[in-house]
Amino acid sequence: MSSTAPRTLWIDAQGRLLTRDQTLLPFEDVLLELGGEEDCARAIRTMQVRGAPLIGAVAAYGLAFALRTDPTDAGLARARDDLLATRPTAVNLRWALDRVSARVAALPAAARAQAAWSEAAAICDDDAACNRSIGLHGAALLAPLRRAGAALQVLTHCNAGRIATVAHGTALAAVYALAEAGVPVHVWVDETRPRNQGASLTAWELGDRGIQHTVISDNAAGLLMRQGRVDAVIVGCDRVAANGDVANKVGTYLKALAAADNAIPFHVACPISSIDPGTADGEAIEIEARDPREVTHIRGRGPQGGMVEVQLTPDGSPAFNPAFDVTPARLVASLITEHGPTDASPEGVRAALGRSAAEGARPAGASPSQEAR
Fold this sequence. Notes:
Blueprint: E1 10-11, E2 17-20, E3 31-34, H1 37-45, H2 52-69, H3 73-84, H4 91-104, H5 109-142, E4 152-156, H6 171-180, E5 185-190, H7 197-209, E6 212-216, H8 221-226, E7 232-235, E8 239-241, E9 246-249, H9 252-261, E10 266-269, E11 275-276, H10 293-296, E12 297-301, E13 307-311, E14 324-327, E15 334-337, E16 340-342, H11 346-358, H12 368-372
Parallel strand pairs: 4-5, 4-7, 5-6, 7-10, 8-11, 10-15
Antiparallel strand pairs: 1-2, 2-3, 8-9, 9-14, 12-13, 15-16
Helix pairs in contact: 1-2, 2-3, 2-4, 2-5, 3-4, 4-5, 5-6
């Protein structure tokens, strides 16, 4: 299965909800069937699916599955809470669950499961359209930075490509749009320790698309910027606060600091669904702490071709594994939404949400009751 497949999450001819198991990439490309709420919750929790938009879409289907079993108000509330608890930082998870819950709340129990399934499908369609638009807006910002006679040099952190979303990607959508337009582009790919989403997933995507790229250690990015070998940095996001602060994969903040010190624009690809107007600033964002074993051990392909895990640290050495960090709004050149770029500021965030509301979309932090007010 190629990374150029139209969707990362889809329903096949037999009615099965399918995705790919991202914990096995890039060496094994295995289909994963999501057959119920528990499958969806487990896939999110174990990072078989990851990336804020894709997490939201899978959670929406998880809630639809749950309503097939128990469509009562109590069943809806329980399933929503269970799915919400799988990962705390990415706001798209809550946004998608709230969107499905609002769709079915006023319906009789017998009609809820089908309505939830249709709403989950609509979330997927909306995500694909949103990301395509982000890619075009991002490409328009990045293309003028290309130096004459050279490929545009873009640096990215973690994986914000098509497999982190339903389709196209967020940050990488801009790279794909540039390539489609014939703009020569080269991507510096941070490895993104400790789970190596850059080295494993972003490099796999870019290679499959024939886009020039080079994997670097996370600590090499600052040197490349200082040497003038990076024209722009573009990353995705898991949550953007009301003041424009950005939560993204741990290590993003350091890239933003290096970019600021070298006068390199640092852009954030930001679907409206990733904006949380109910969170005042980055200090209020809960940062997920994951298993320390992800730091003390590393998994990869062994000399015989099979997957092996090796220990990196001395026996008994403790490890701390925050999954995300927060980049202050002052370091962000723009938030690239599906409606176009906006300032990473309270005013810019309000403007983006206002434009989205005028077009009928719901911001991530607004519940149905808040909207009524």
